[in-house]
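Format notes (please read before filing issues)

Several people have asked whether sequences and structure tokens are stored in separate files. They are not. Every record keeps both together, in the order shown below: the sequence lines, then the token lines. Line labels are part of the format and must not be stripped during preprocessing.
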Amino acid sequence: MAVKKKEIVIIVVNATAIYSFLLIDIAAGSGLYMTAKLLGAGIIIASVCSMAGVEGIKRGPKLVRNVKQMRK
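Then the structure lines:
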């Protein structure tokens, strides 16, 4: 009888990645969604606003940095 070896997979995640996910994706996304809903947008428009806003928050600083480097 052959003995099967079991593998153990350990995944290490930086605390900054977890903090970034919690702060930006959940908090900012929920805030943007609720703001859009308060302004009278529908569910679909509020969801799209939330997704676009979170992506803008994530990619915005990198985009501004690249534009400044291109102008030099």
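For reference, the curators noted about this record: The chain has a mean pLDDT of 86. The radius of gyration is 20 Å.
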